[in-house]
């Protein structure tokens, strides 16, 4: 990080010093006039008059210059539209590729402005939907056939699989994977039996596996094209749900209310005649609420429209070539495991003590005590005891060992770390507070840099809005290094840890597609 940040900081400082060296006294006065006129609405002195009366020995600091440049830059970009801003970002990325690695470029382009809400339940596998629809059709057809027709079809299937050289040979019959070959043998065995019920079950299961094998071999793009061609066969409510849960929303969304059904659509969805399709849709949407995680790790496609802090951080790690466990609680152990196993040299999990601990691509994980009366511990949030290689734990040593007095917190360690204290109100009422320790937030380090405001940690993360959680809250943020290193006060405990694993190999072909600027600029 030093090889990037320090030269950059030195370069910026040299530029500022050169700027000051050429900044004559008249320009100093103009800057002061500009600052006063912007900060004080009652300031009416014309620029020319102010330049004359302004004291010539007034010193302009580097911070003044930096803040002025930031103000001017902010004004210049405020007038640009989305595509002009994207072009500026693209040019910046091209100019400094080491400063802006592929994972950061991806997140800035595809996640900036995304809504703060869990990604769970926001995506459904389009291939799984096609499979469910096809299986529904298979079951409907075969259930109407009598035993004689079922026996005839069983003989035809057995012949097709045992010869496997005809033009109408099912794709499954050519499978070479042991898992599928074993399934085929079992299905054929049942279809050759003498019991009609067994033959029927064997045929249904074989044709079900034929559908699965064929559809699973499709690419995501082919599956989406397949569904798009079926659009006319779906009622409006079903098509709206399909668009909501698949990347078809990119091309098919035509109104602001794309995520909500109208009262009439709700009525149609709940009608008796929609029961079969409704069951298919519900099974598809609810099969695995967290399925987006493995899918993104495999394809790097943008498949969610919302995310919370740890989910944003997980996307960052996917693009860096890793598949970390889901949730906040599992992350510290994952980083400790990587550090211990040493499979990737340079992995670490530390309580940060300087800017050197904030390596680009690292996760920052914060702790906080929360009231047990308002939020109960869950396995996804609980901060189970863990220590760094340097034997630094979740709490300072003095918290664990002291004998608490009245009004002080008393700590108890275990699977759940808790604390309690008793205070007396002015009217002599005893108040007992109980809190438990949880992981509260995760961010990903983008850069550490010296700025006009001092050493600053720049991150890609979420900021939970104070009101509507659907408000855009994902993007680049910055805070002082001093704040990051602080544990805060005991009442507002804010200890953080940094976990880092060096980049591994992400699917290059998928990443290149997602950073294809011709595709990004396509309106």
Would you mind describing this structure in some detail?
This protein has 523 residues and is of the alpha+beta class. Among the domains are: 83-119 and 309-399 and 437-523; 126-216, no CATH class; 230-286, no CATH class. 47% of the residues lie in helices and 13% in strands. The chain has 22 helices and ten strands. A hairpin with a 2-residue loop joins β7 and β8. α6 packs across α17 (309-319) and α7 (126-143) packs antiparallel against α10 (196-216). Mean pLDDT is 87; it is low at 1-5 and 19-24.
Give the helices and strands, then pairings.
Elements: H1 2-21, H2 25-39, H3 47-53, H4 62-78, H5 82-95, H6 102-111, E1 115-116, H7 126-143, H8 147-163, H9 178-191, H10 196-216, H11 220-229, H12 236-245, H13 249-252, H14 263-269, H15 275-285, H16 291-299, E2 306-307, H17 309-319, H18 330-341, E3 348-350, E4 363-371, H19 397-401, E5 410-412, E6 418-424, E7 430-451, E8 454-462, E9 474-480, H20 481-485, E10 496-500, H21 508-514, H22 517-520
Parallel strand pairs: 1-2
Antiparallel strand pairs: 3-10, 4-7, 4-10, 5-6, 6-7, 7-8, 8-9
Helix pairs in contact: 2-3, 6-17, 7-10, 7-15, 8-10, 9-10, 12-15, 16-17
């Amino acid at each position: 990080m030093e090889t990037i940040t320090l030269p950059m900081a030195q370069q910026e400082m040299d530029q500022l010093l050169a700027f000051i060296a050429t900044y004559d006294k008249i320009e100093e006065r103009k800057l002061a006039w500009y600052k006063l006129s912007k900060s004080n609405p009652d300031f009416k002195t014309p620029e020319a008059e102010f330049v004359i009366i302004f004291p010539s020995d007034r010193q302009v600091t580097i911070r003044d210059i930096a803040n002025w440049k930031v103000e001017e830059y902010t004004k210049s970009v405020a007038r640009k539209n989305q595509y002009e801003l994207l072009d500026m970002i693209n040019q910046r990325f091209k100019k400094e590729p080491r400063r802006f690695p592929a994972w950061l470029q991806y997140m800035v382009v595809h996640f900036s402005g995304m809504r703060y809400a869990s990604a769970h339940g926001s995506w459904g596998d389009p291939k799984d939907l096609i499979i469910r629809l096809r299986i529904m059709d298979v079951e409907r057809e075969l259930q109407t056939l009598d035993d004689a027709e079922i026996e005839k079809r069983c003989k035809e299937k057995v012949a097709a699989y045992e010869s496997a050289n005809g033009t109408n040979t099912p794709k499954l019959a050519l499978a070479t994977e042991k898992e599928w070959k074993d399934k085929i043998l079992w299905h054929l065995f049942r279809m050759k039996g003498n019991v009609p019920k067994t033959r029927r079950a064997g045929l249904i299961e074989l044709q079900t596996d034929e559908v699965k094998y064929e559809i699973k071999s499709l690419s995501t793009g082919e599956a989406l094209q397949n569904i798009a061609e079926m659009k006319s066969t779906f009622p409006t409510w079903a098509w709206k749900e399909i668009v909501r849960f698949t990347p078809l929303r990119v091309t098919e969304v035509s109104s602001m209310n794309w995520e909500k059904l109208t009262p009439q659509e709700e009525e149609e969805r709940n009608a008796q005649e929609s029961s079969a399709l409704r069951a298919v849709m519900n099974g598809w949407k609810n099969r695995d609420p967290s399925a987006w995680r493995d899918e993104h790790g495999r394809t790097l496609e943008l498949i969610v429209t919302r995310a919370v802090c740890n989910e944003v951080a997980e996307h960052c790690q996917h693009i860096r070539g890793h598949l970390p466990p889901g949730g906040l609680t599992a992350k510290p152990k994952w980083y400790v495991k990587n550090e211990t196993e040493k499979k990737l040299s340079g992995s670490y999990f530390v309580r940060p003590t300087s800017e050197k601990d904030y390596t680009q691509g690292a996760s920052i994980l914060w702790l906080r005590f929360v009231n047990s009366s308002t939020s109960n511990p869950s396995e996804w949030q609980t901060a189970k005891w863990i220590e760094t290689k340097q034997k630094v734990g979740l709490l300072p040593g003095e918290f664990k060992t002291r004998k608490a007095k009245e009004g002080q917190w008393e700590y108890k360690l275990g699977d759940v770390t808790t604390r309690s204290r008793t205070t007396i109100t002015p009217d002599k009422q005893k108040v007992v507070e109980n809190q438990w320790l949880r992981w509260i937030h995760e961010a990903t380090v983008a850069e550490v840099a010296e700025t006009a405001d001092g050493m600053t940690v720049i991150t890609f993360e979420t900021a939970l809005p104070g009101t509507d959680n659907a408000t855009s809250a994902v993007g680049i943020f910055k805070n002082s290094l001093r704040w990051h290193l602080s544990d805060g006060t005991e009442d507002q405990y804010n200890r953080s840890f940094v976990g880092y694993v060096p980049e591994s190999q992400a699917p290059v072909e998928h990443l290149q597609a997602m950073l294809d600027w011709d595709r990004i600029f396509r309106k």
